[in-house]
Amino acid sequence: MAKKNIILGVTASIAIYKSCDILRRLKERGFSVSVVMTKEAEELIRPIVFQSLSGDKVYRGLFDTPRAWGIEHISLAKEANLILIAPATANIIAKIAAGTCDDLLTCIILATKAPVLIAPAMNENMYKNKITQENIAKLKRLGYRFIGPKEGRLACGDMGIGCLAEVEEIIKEVKKNI
């Protein structure tokens, strides 16, 4: 059986450190994983961390020089068997819901036919905001799938909903949807 290709989209949530564990566990289970980071995510963790864990290039900018000739966001979108965004910020959820295509990750998402799993991680007030909830409802109607979030201690110190789902739950959902 051919190796399944997963794109791991990483956005700028404090839960970004859990993306490293998600990447490691997906690789352990035999998946091929390409990491795509947003520019804002790079403010929290350097791409070299994901490059070291994946043993492969980390995709970052829409206009970075591609590894081979081709339109990178299209070729990545075609090769993907599944796209997982973990952590997913309110910003990326809003951009996807609006069809905004202004970075590599959103371009890949709009160009793919693969299932997209979204694992939100944000402050409770942001998650419960009516706009965020409308965006999530819209994406669910369009076939996007969500994992979590869960309740717990948030980065601001408050308790509430907005914590990234447990890594094992995310891995389980990936296996179920690929």
Automatic annotation (TrEMBL):
It comes from the Bacteria. Gene3D superfamilies: Flavin prenyltransferase-like. Residues 4-176 form the Flavoprotein domain. Coiled coil: none annotated. SUPFAM superfamilies: Homo-oligomeric flavin-containing Cys decarboxylases, HFCD. One of its GO terms (cellular component) is phosphopantothenoylcysteine decarboxylase complex. One of its GO terms (molecular function) is FMN binding. InterPro entries: Flavin_trans-like, Flavoprotein. GO terms for biological process: coenzyme A biosynthetic process. It holds the Pfam family Flavoprotein. This is Flavoprotein domain-containing protein. The lineage of its organism: Bacteria, Pseudomonadati, Candidatus Omnitrophota, Candidatus Sherwoodlollariibacterium.
